[in-house]
Amino acid sequence: MSTPVFARPRDKHELETGTSFTPAFDDRGLIPAIATDVQTGDVLMMAWMNEQALALSIETGVAHYWSRSRNKLWKKGESSGNTQTIIELLTDCDQDTIWMKVRQNGLAAACHVGYKSCFYRAVPTGKTAPENLSLEFREKAPVFDPDEVYNKKQS
């Protein structure tokens, strides 16, 4: 195993109120990362980072993530061109979540299915029983066709 990039917290006080960046990765070596649009504040996506992805994001100013499904590091937009330039990177009080305010580049869409945000559908609350829910679209249409952008075969 390689040497950790980030220090580990010395104590709770330093973790919560100090100046040392000591991200708390989970038992899989991952930390959740939320990306929001720097201009609108809209949540664009949530993904996971491992230590390498977080370090590359800090070093390059471009969002990198860890794909759990592909089990590999990925630079956001490496296939689609829809990169994320990090304007500000924050951590929460116990340093177990990352929040990035980003400028979404390319087609201005963060979601791999073509929408501006991965959060393009809402779950209605207080209206019906959970087993009878229908998702409500908040974005009318995708910004791009993923089959064209990712060079997938047309069905």
How many domains make up the coordinates? 1
Oligomer: single chain
On the 0 to 100 scale, the average pLDDT is 93
Quickly give the CATH architecture: Roll
In the CATH hierarchy, the third-tier topology is known as Ubiquitin-like (UB roll)
Q: Uncertain spans, ≥5 residues at pLDDT below 50? A: none
- The residue fraction in helices comes out at 10-25%
TL;DR?
The protein is of the alpha+beta class. The protein has helices at residues 12-17, 51-60, 146-149; strands at residues 31-37, 43-49, 64-67, 72-75, 84-91, 98-104, 121-122, 136-137. It has a 4-stranded mixed β-sheet. Strands 3-4 form a two-stranded antiparallel ribbon. It has a two-stranded antiparallel sheet with strand order 7-8.
Q: How would you characterize this protein structure?
A:
The chain is α+β, with helices and mostly antiparallel strands and 155 residues long. The protein has a single domain, classed as Phosphoribosyl-AMP cyclohydrolase (Ubiquitin-like (UB roll)). Helices cover 13% and strands 26% of the residues. It has 3 helices and 8 strands. It has helices at 12-17, 51-60, 146-149; strands at residues 31-37, 43-49, 64-67, 72-75, 84-91, 98-104, 121-122, 136-137. It has a 4-stranded mixed sheet with strand order 2-1-6-5.
What structural keywords apply?
155 residues, alpha+beta, four-stranded mixed β-sheet, two-stranded antiparallel ribbon, 8 strands, globular, Ubiquitin-like (UB roll)
